[in-house]
Amino acid sequence: MPSIAVEGLERAFGEVRAVQGIDLAVEEGEIYGFLGPNGAGKTTTVRMLTTLLLPTGGRASVAGHDIVAEARQVRGSIGVALQEAALDPLMTGRELIRLQATLQGLPPAAGRERADALLERVDLADAADRRVGGYSGGMKRRLDLAAALVHEPSVLFLDEPTTGLDPVSRKTIWEEVRALNDDGTTVFLTTQYLEEADQLADNVGIIDSGRIVAEGTPESLKGEVGNPYIELLVGERAVAEAERVCAELGRLLPPKDGKRVLVEVEQGAADIPRVVRALDEAGIAVESLELVRPTLDDVFVAKTGHHLEKEEDRDADEEMAPA
Amino acid sequence: MSDLAKSARVVRALGARSIRQTFRRPQLMAPIVVFPTLLLAVQTGGAGAGIELPGFPPVQSFLQFMLAGSMMQSMMLAGNSGGIAFAVDIEMGFTDRLFAAPIPRFAIVLGRLAGTAALGLFAAIWFLAIGLIFGAEIAGGVPGALLAMALTTAAALAVGGIGAAIALRTGSASVVQGLFPLVLVVLFLSSAFFPQELMIEPAKTIARYNPLSFIVEGVREPIISGIDATHTLEAVAAIAGIVVLGLVLSARALRHRLRVG
Known about the structure:
The complex is a heterodimer of chains A (about 325) and B (about 260).
Chain A: E1 4-13, E2 16-26, E3 31-35, H1 42-49, E4 57-62, E5 65-66, H2 71-77, E6 78-81, H3 93-103, H4 108-121, H5 137-148, E7 155-159, H6 167-182, E8 186-191, H7 194-200, E9 203-208, E10 211-216, H8 218-224, E11 229-234, H9 239-247, E12 251-253, E13 260-264, H10 272-281, E14 286-292, H11 296-304, H12 311-320
Parallel strand pairs in A: 3-8, 3-9, 6-7, 7-8
Antiparallel strand pairs in A: 1-2, 1-4, 4-5, 9-10, 11-13, 11-14, 12-13
Helix pairs in contact in A: 3-4, 3-5
Chain B: H1 3-24, H2 26-47, H3 62-91, H4 94-99, H5 106-133, H6 141-170, H7 173-177, H8 180-188, H9 203-209, H10 211-224, H11 229-260
Helix pairs in contact in B: 1-2, 1-5, 2-3, 3-5, 3-6, 3-8, 3-10, 5-6, 6-10, 6-11, 10-11
């Protein structure tokens, strides 16, 4: 049985249909990346799955419990870290975790013990008795994550957990999410960052205008929009000869400018030596070579006709990409 | 641990948080303590001769008469501040954290009200202490003081229920804050600061039927003349009416909030 099962889930606000009949299934122990631009319906979906908002159609279960009929059992099984880290700036980190422990029904001694362990785990032990208002964005996110884990939930909902964070803080959150998943926690993660979904998710659902437009593993989704290609920069006089050589190795793509040759390859990096060798044998000097893989943004463009991320977000993703 | 015991722990924890929040946010604390204390000082200093007027109830001093009014002002502003704080929680998403927990959702409202009630008790103790320090007598003695404290605490809970309902319905701190002048109008159109007998129409009639007047008199009697069953029961009835109204409105607003998000 999936940890999260959604069938025809809908939510309308008056005339506005924010979520328009989505279906999805998240298996136990999976990280599911729910990817989409602002206003696509991600947060509305999370709010319904976490019982904060009633659906207007369809049904869903989380951890085996119906989100409407068994809302309280759902709430006992899930951890939730919502967008914009909803923390009281006047509380200290320790007070917040202890309050969360009380809300989850932990006995006082166990709550205190768990709070100390979690604060240690998210590296906030030294700041535990400071008011949250003085925390940095990354510290607030880590505290929010710790609060969501206080009762060791089987399913964790993270709504845009790294939005607005610097690359280092983002990476810290990613590492923590991976560690939680390694421990068996199912993670439902909404994000508008392609790199985040690509790096973390076992499966990705892409939502746009309240509908799921694509679903699958990041690799399979990218595979749907084409193979990787090699982009070669050669001298201007060698372009025609390079194109002739490359045409025998793979499908030529329309060139970007007069100097670059683009050739699609099936095996990605494994094809690079073959291409380099053929060009060398033909006496063509290669000034630079880059393997370009399809991204989830290419998938998004193919499915919706527009880009998922704004230019500045793409730059941020590039900063985060592994070297 | 039973469900009831768990809910009681949650109410206590949220009540404690609400009290801490008030003491840590000066703009919430000022209306509860500073303004009523200043008004008490100004009125006692400037209008003390009023007790000589014909129709003024027999009191030991003007300060003794005013204590109940100051407690009511502080209690009502505590209810308003509680509503503002609740709305701030909604605005910043903190209530989502509470709504996502496996607890009866009404415990969240009760937690907030527990904090407001505690502030009502604090207000009663504060003003009784000021009264005693500056020479006012508590005619009903220790039982009278305890009764005044109990009624003020219960009244704070009742008024807090209205504030919580408005916060839940609107989700806007500025809307709840906008009720501040209304609190003063309700106070001045009651017997909090003037004896009903000395008011002119239509204020006199409004004050006669203003539920706050019944609560004021219930708190004032044990201070100025001793415990009186009629005034006490009228105050309890007025408080009970406001409690029921506040709880019904809060429950409806809570359902509305969960329906519309």
